[in-house]
Every structure is written in C-alpha cells, then in structure tokens.
Amino acid sequence: MVGWAIALHGGGGDIPIDLPDELRIPRETALRHCLDLGVSALKSGKHPLDVTELVVRELENHPYFNAGKGSVLTAQGTVEMEASIMDGKTKRCGAVSGLTTVVNPVSLARLVMEKTPHIYLAFDAAEAFARAHGVETAESTYFITPENIARLKQAKEFNRVQLDYTAPTPKEPEIRGDSQIGTVGCVAVDSAGNLAAATSTGGYVNKMAGRIGDSPLIGAGTYANHLCAVSATGKGEYIIRATMAREVAALMEYKGLSLSEAAAYAVEQSGPRGTCGLVAVSANGEVAMPYNTNGMFRACATEDGFTEVAIWPKN
C-alpha cells in the first residue's frame, strides 16, 4: 500500500532526560505545530517539495531551533546559515551556504534549484541572488539573539567549538542543559510516491567563519530519489564522511534493505555514539527516525493514522 507520510526533526544531541519544562515544552509544541502544518498540506494535495519547504520554513522561523531565526553564532559573532532541498523523482536540488540576512534559507535553496542552471550558491553570491529575487531578508538583530550571544560567550570561555545547540551553564559547562546538535529538516512522500527532503541549519556555536557542514551538501545532509527521502542531523564532519543520506538510498537500492534497516545501518556506521541521527520516508509511506545521540527532537505522521512527537527513546 502506498500512503502519504511525513517526518521532521529539530536536531539531535546530548539532550538530558530532565530537560526543564521551559526548554522542552516550546520545542514539543513547535514540533507538533509543524507536523500538523505538513499533514494538512499533504492531505490538501500539495507536492512533497512544497510540503518540506513549508515545514522547514516554519522551523526556521522558530527561535528555539538552530536554523533561520534561532541560528547560533560563529567565532566572529556572526550568523552563517545553510540549507538544501531535493526532489526525489527528478533529483533536482538546490543548496545555499554562508547566508547572513536571508530569513528562510530553505526557500533560497529552492530558488537556486528553480531559477539557475546550478545547484549550490554561497556567501556573497547567494546573498546577491536573494536580493535580486526579492527574497525576504532581515537585519542581523533578527538573528543574533541574547541566548545565542550567551552560548557563544560560554563556548569562547571554555575554548571549544560547541557541537551542540547549548544553553549557557557557566558553572558546569559539561552539563548541557539544552543540548542539541542543531539542524532542522523535513521529509515527505505523497500517496503517488513522490518524495522530497529539505534541511536547514545555523551550524556550530563558535565555528570558524566559512565552515560548511553537511546540511547543504546533497548526499550528506539531504537526499531524495525514487526510493526514499532523508534529512540528517548531527556532527556534520561525520555525516559528510559517511555520505549518510545517500547511504540510506544506496542500501535500499543495491542491498534490498527496508527503509528502517537502511536508516539504522547508516546511522550506526556514521561514527561513534553521539554523532548523528536522521529522519526518512520511503516511497510506500514507511517512516524511520534512528539516532545514536542521547535524544533527537522529532515528529512523524502516516496516512494510516500513526503520529509521534518525541525527544528521547521510547521505552
């Protein structure tokens, strides 16, 4: 049976089981809202490409996730956002990096796909392309929030590139009260088997300016073909080495694994525990959301009525 399905994530990482309600509840509420938005769009007949863009835009607009408005800061105190989107049937895709003013990077990635002969634009050229196409932009104050200034200060104090999207805990820096390796993403399939994937992020706290992660890299952080759609989250350098999103599709195509088997194997082989996670859907409406981190902000729904919004492993 072919049925629609959708899965989304708000990042995975070292998320303590006792995450305070004031940090947990807004994220769960946002995940549920974004899931409902995506489900309504699929039910109304929107193409998965439109659905994934819509959902990721909403996640980018939410300050509790490390993408768009919630993007963390580089070592220079700036925002450098990146995103990608891919259509499974045609394999058309678009990607952007080094954005500093674009409110919704995922939509600019789609414009690169649809309005240029290229796949990937970055930094000043991507910003110029955004201005030329009237894409919504904002001043740096929109992105540079007090919370992310505090996160950067903490990371600098302890001289580390913070791999997580972490709330300041200056007295006990290794206890990560709000930890997530920040990325947002969405994958969707409609009842005709059309697939799409989209991913967006602000990167690492205190990263080197100019560093590019897995999120805009097709085959690493994002991939979709006729079999599946995948969006990854985690430590980008590991995900890039493993070409993790493409690995799921390859395992299904060449080894005949199911979506759940392929997704679990790809995560397992990507690196040590605490490295990554992903959300994926197959052409026949299956969903997989494996991760090897402590938790992953995630949600999914399928046409047969299954719905889940979760952070930690289910008992």
TrEMBL record:
Q: Which GO terms describe its biological process?
A: proteolysis
According to UniProt, where does the site described as Cleavage lie?
G182, T183
List the keywords (alphabetical).
Autocatalytic cleavage, Hydrolase, Protease
Q: Which reaction does it catalyse?
A: Cleavage of a beta-linked Asp residue from the N-terminus of a polypeptide
PANTHER family in alphabetical order = L-ASPARAGINASE, N(4)-(BETA-N-ACETYLGLUCOSAMINYL)-L-ASPARAGINASE
Subunit structure, as described in the record: Heterotetramer of two alpha and two beta chains arranged as a dimer of alpha/beta heterodimers.
Record's protein name = beta-aspartyl-peptidase
What lineage does the source organism belong to? Answer: Eukaryota, Viridiplantae, Streptophyta, Embryophyta, Tracheophyta
